[in-house]
Amino acid sequence: MLQLHGIRPYMKNFMQGRISWSFFICSMIERRANMDIEKIRHSLAHVMAEAVQHLFPGVKFGIGPAIDDGFYYDFLFPQPITNDDLSAIEKEMRRIIEKDQDFIRTEISKQEAQELFRDQPFKLELIEGLEEGKISIYKQGDFVDLCRGPHVESTKELKPSAFKLKTIAGAYWRGDESKPMLTRIYAYAFESKAKLEDYLHMLEEAERRDHRKLGKELDLFSTHEEAGPGLIYWHPKGGRFRVELENWWRDEHYKNGYEILFTPHIGKSWLWETSGHLGFYKANMYAPMKIDEDEYFIKPMNCPFHIMIYKTSSHSYRDLPLRWAELGTVYRYERSGVLHGLMRVRGFTQDDAHIICTPDQIEDEILEVLRFSLSMWKTLGFKEIKAYLATRPADSVGEPERWDQALVSLKKAIDKEGLLYEIDEGGGAFYGPKIDLKVKDAIGREWQMTTIQFDFNEPERFDMVFIDKDGKQKRPYMVHRALLGSLERFFGVFIEHYAGAFPVWLMPDQVAVIPVAPSFDAYAKTVAKFLQEKGIRAKAMLSEERMNAKIRDAQNQRIPYMAIVGQREQEGSLVSLRLRTGDQESGIPLEVFAARVLEKIDMKSLDL
RNA sequence: GCCCCUGUAGCUCAGUUGGCAGAGCAUAUCCAUGGUAAGGAUAAGGUCAACGGUUCGAUUCCGUUCGGGGGCUCCA
């Protein structure tokens, strides 16, 4: 039941999860600062609305809140606008700000509000939902908006250089597809010009690291519209990465007490009816195919298959815990508009596992999973990790005692590992609570990767049991977990985190041997072969290009080690090194170089 | 799916206010004796996403379809 791919692209909300309650008390200063910037952003939204009112008479207003990196306002324009109109709006906003207008708050009755906004259908709808006597309006210049506030005192507190209109986008009124589509104008806004510029630089950096761009440049993967969007083709270099990653993943799983399973890609409708997926997950499953007289579905999840294996024999409490892992490829329907490179796809391989255990093992098991996950993230070079604990929603299955015990074990595990965490009250799936881990990447973005989820649904539906000490049949606990999430999505995040310059052990090409002139091709080949025989991915660059061009090419490919060879090196069985960092070291004995590279590979070192 | 933007050579992009399509990189061939981020020349490479409409004529304008991008959670 893992919902690994239901994760929104990073630009949304990466500074903050959907959190209803925080364990951490912001200092008063921070809280004050947050309030100030919110006030500024929200006030700017009003200024934008005023500007739009000036430029597009007859426009209808939706809402205009502050958001993580600025603000937006939703409008219904009399005629469509284009990106070109943004600069005119921005200009008008600056003019308004210069006028030094006060924001004036007034409280009015519901009836007065309805009268005031009689031409504004969306405002009227909002007023409907408000209580009498608590209705406030804010006015600046000739613009009046229904608004709770607070706002800055005057437009003079707004800095014309610290905001920038971003894009126009469609957005349904109140996020509801059945309601009219409004035109949303997004803007960035910060306390100061410098902060805005920092943020814009971060966005540029993100663009530079974009995995779709690097995937093409580094020849790692592709997608093909004519063969089906949202389906990933791993090229030889992406394949090298994946094989290395999977090999390590398997080794680690065996070391951590897991067994590895392989299960089919399709299953009869019986399986999905029993699991309940045809009830609550059907919208994400592909249409069935008919084989003989039966309907088969392509799997969107691996769990029912693992349960089938569990049920091939009876299990004593002595057999538990079972830790069963699979790199299972699943297919899920995603609407075409949400597909995004490797991050949101229609077919992907989960690094899935199911832990089946007794009630008194559950705490240790959760702790083990968490530890395992953290150790993997450490090896992969992600240092900052935060946990999000999602608790029981209103509608749920499973006995309350189980939910409580599950939650306690999740909390204890987080505490023992000393992780920062936030609680998402009621945010769990109907079938169980979960911990999600978000990792922070090199430019500060958070990505949700690991998920550890209890499942109180399937063990019931499949009637999973074990025989306890007292000889009675009991229901085991089942936990789904994915550490990397999916290999596709992980690859995308990894590419962006390292901007393509992976640690040596995961680099498709580890060493480029570059002769300074064609007369040293033979020695270059010898060097490459020597390294290859030791298990290093080395290639001799023997084209007719000049050395400079080869270095540039290797550098662009982020190859960690460039071994430059010429007369001196050939005579002394040496190499001269250029690292992808630009550092140079000359006259290194070939043996010494090989040993160094092997050590970096074996240690999964993050440096060269 | 819906809104806006977008689709020209393998890649990155120009361009035609409607008149038989261009550059750089990559590729191929040739020349070039070269020490740490692109040596030079020549050639090959495109039904300008697909289909339909307007027009003497469409890659260009219009429509539809199929992709790609940004959004569609933030509640006055």
Describe this structure in words.
The protein is an alpha+beta fold and 608 residues long. The chain has three domains: 28-209, Threonyl-trna Synthetase, Chain A, domain 2 (Threonyl-tRNA Synthetase, Chain A, domain 2, 2-Layer Sandwich); 217-263 and 297-498, Bira Bifunctional Protein, Domain 2 (BirA Bifunctional Protein, domain 2), CATH 3.30.930.10; 504-602, 3-Layer(aba) Sandwich (Rossmann fold), CATH 3.40.50.800. 35% of the residues lie in helices and 26% in strands. It has 18 helices and 28 strands. The chain has an eight-stranded mixed β-sheet with strand order 11-15-16-23-20-19-17-18. Strands 1, 2, 3, 7 and 8 form a five-stranded antiparallel β-sheet that branches. A five-stranded mixed β-sheet has the order 25-24-26-27-28, with helices on both faces. Helix 6 crosses helix 14. The chain is globular and about 90 Å long. The chain binds one RNA strand of 76 nucleotides through strand 2, helix 4, strand 5, strand 7 and strand 8.
Précis, in short:
It contains 18 helices and 28 strands.
Strand order of the largest sheet: 11-15-16-23-20-19-17-18
Q: What does the radius of gyration come to?
A: 29 Å
Anisotropy-based shape: globular
The SS-based structural class is alpha+beta
- Residue ranges: pLDDT <50 for 5 or more in a row? 1-31
CATH architecture of the largest domain: 2-Layer Sandwich
Kindly report the name of the CATH homologous superfamily of the largest domain. Answer: Bira Bifunctional Protein, Domain 2
